[in-house]
Amino acid sequence: MTPRTAERIAGIEIPDSALAREAAELVRDTAGDLLYHHSRRVHLFGALRGHRRGLDFDPELLYVAALFHDLGLTQKYAASEQRFEIDGADAARDFLLRHGLAPERARIAWTAIALHTTPEIPYHMEPEVALVTAGVEVDVLGLGFDEVTREQRDAVVAAHPRPDFKRRILAAFTEGIAHRPGTAFGNVKADVLARFSPGFVRTDFVNVIENSEWSE
């Protein structure tokens, strides 16, 4: 039997274990092309930034966490009332535990996904947690853009194109959380709903404090 040749994109070897292949298939079937290609780019950009910074990370764990990070935006979770980040984090943890990973590794993946919309904090945690956020920041916000060379960016986008990505990802964010607007409190996604969800009213932190049951 001819051995499988590892897929490499921009110099990054794509994990090819049975677990990694099953995770990719599950996410592609559940999330569709937009979020699948975005998630693969998140993995690649996160790995590239990790290598640039000299971080020692588990490639398979980073890959699975990146794949699952936006799963909570999909139709499967249309009835969920918790934060979409938690939906994806729970799904990844359950997937990893079913496949026999140690609870501590599953916890790291859960944390990476749960915190990927929370600025700065992930960078003070495990490398896999930091690098999911690092990948998201490049692909969605353009932060850390110059930490990835033009040749690397071109290779990633050639493998995982991003046609009309800005508009389409904002639409996916809106569709995934508009039915649970309270979960945007204290979160960057409040900006998305303020722009694209008619009637959305931000929860005001100061008002919450001033109108609490405490007399003073």
From TrEMBL:
Source organism: Streptomyces polyasparticus
- Matching InterPro entries: HD/PDEase_dom, HD_domain
Name of the protein in question:
HD domain-containing protein
According to the entry, every stretch annotated as the HD domain falls at 36-123
